[in-house]
Amino acid sequence: MGLAVLEQRKPGTALKKGRTYQLKGRKKKGPAGGKSRQKNFDFDLGAVLKMLAEGTARAILIAACSYGIFAGYRFVTSSPHFNVNQVNWVGQQRLSNADLTSWVGPIVGGNIFQLDLNAVSVKLAEHPWVQTASARRIFPQGIHIELKERIPFARIQLDQVYIMDNYGILLGPEEKNFNDLPLITGIQEKNPQLGQNAANEEIIRGLKSMYYFNRLPMFKKNPIDTVRISNRSRITFVTQNRGMEVHMRPGTAEESFKNLMLVLETIGENEKDLSYIDLSFKDKIVVKHHKKVKRSSQKTKKA
Which of 15, 60, 269, 296 yields a CA-CA distance of 20 to 30 A from 182? Predict the structure, then answer.
């Protein structure tokens, strides 16, 4: 009997103990879990607040910098301390400062920062007489402009006589100061414009040939100064005193020079009396002397 009673009490006691253990377990877990969640929630909120504070600070800093830049820009672009009051022109020989200023437009009085130096350089380079141009700022109120003028090289007869440089650019109408430059005639060009390139293949060949002809001793005192391009198959060179003509075919300069040297070696001292040399034929060279030379030679033969 006693044993049976003891055995019957044990399950109840065990059940109570189990419930008591579960309650204790719930009490321990409940408060501990709540505190953990509260701690995690507090950490996330702090991070968000920190990000918001940093973002606000950055926005304020950007706004302050932007305003500073804007205020600085307004100051340097509107302050009279940065208005151009001097332009230094360097490199011009023929063109005057007034000519260049009139061509490029007003510079003095404008703000040094708002002046488009690239546009100034491009505008100057469009002038027929200007080959290259560059501009730079000299703070606080100066502009330095350096340019290179084109060099007159020859005259060319179109609708009127123009001056051109060694690249074939038309510089302007003929002037008395350049009357000693070589003259090119026989070119057909409609509505020529100053600054345009008028040098075609015939002109380039003619000028090159003239240059090499004038290096010969026979043309030293009486150089060739006129090139007539009558057609694509014939070029005529005329000396300064108009006493001698040389004819050749375009594109045969090297062969023509060789033939001319043979002629000069054959003629010898009588080269000064030549009035006509035709190198345009393929297999022959035509040479003529002045009439007085022929007469004198005939008198010598009779004697």
Answer: 269
